[in-house]
# Entry
Amino acid sequence: MFNINDFWRETVNLAYNREKYTEEFISSILTPNNITKNDLIWDVSAGTGFLSLDLLERGYNVIFSDGDSDMIKQFAQEAERIGLEAESKLIHWEYLLEKYNKQPKLIINRGNSLGYAATWRKEGFDARESYTQVMNALNNFYKLLQPEGFLIQDCVKKGDEEHFYEFGTMTLEGKTCELEWERKSFPEEERSEWTIILRSHDKERQIMNNSYNITGESLTGMLEETGFRNIEPVNLETEQLYKAYLARK
Ligand SMILES: C[S@@+](CC[C@H](N)C(=O)[O-])C[C@H]1O[C@@H](n2cnc3c(N)ncnc32)[C@H](O)[C@@H]1O
# Structure
């Protein structure tokens, strides 16, 4: 049965030029901040391995984790497809400190993942619970990093809080479908709604997921509250969907 993770795997390949994105990530973020192939990088929402498997392929020292067991399987398939030996560990952000004792120089949490801390592939939404999980996650990222380490954290772009995107055609479970997605924002409920719409010739399917509503402004505030400093937006021309921020421990 098709799920949001299948959709995400295909979407990153439709929306991004992986080669160019990775090169720009290295030249705009890693190299200027002296993050070298000797330094440990931890992708804490590894998903299907977009970006972090690409960094591993280029010789960077990357470890991977994700809180969704289905994503762990998708990651394994993707690593095998590329021909890389890599494993993503099943770790929910709540338990990051308990599960691993390595201190990375860089934590990557991309793909607008943070707001889903309490809700990824879950029904319903509780604003307090979501906020608590988001702040717990940021606190754990902070504690986990080595002194002076960095966090790359993205969120929706300013002015893009509500949008409708047409992504084009993808093949899922052998069927060709047209992919669209809609994002709505309900700031008074602290909630965002992300609906994926798949149309094939005979039917339409919709999948909806709620997240905690995070903007660049609120993200900066939450990072500051956690203790991060030097919080700067990063200009990535190849970033199609989100706005990335670099923050320092
Ligand atoms: C939109 S996907 C992004 C995946 C990947 N970072 C990328 O850019 O392609 C969101 C990911 O965040 C992960 N995630 C959400 N909440 C999490 C949590 N509390 N702990 C660990 N992973 C979480 C999901 O399992 C999912 O893989």
Summary: DSSP finds seven helices and eleven strands in the chain. Residues 48 and 157 are 22 Å apart (CA to CA).
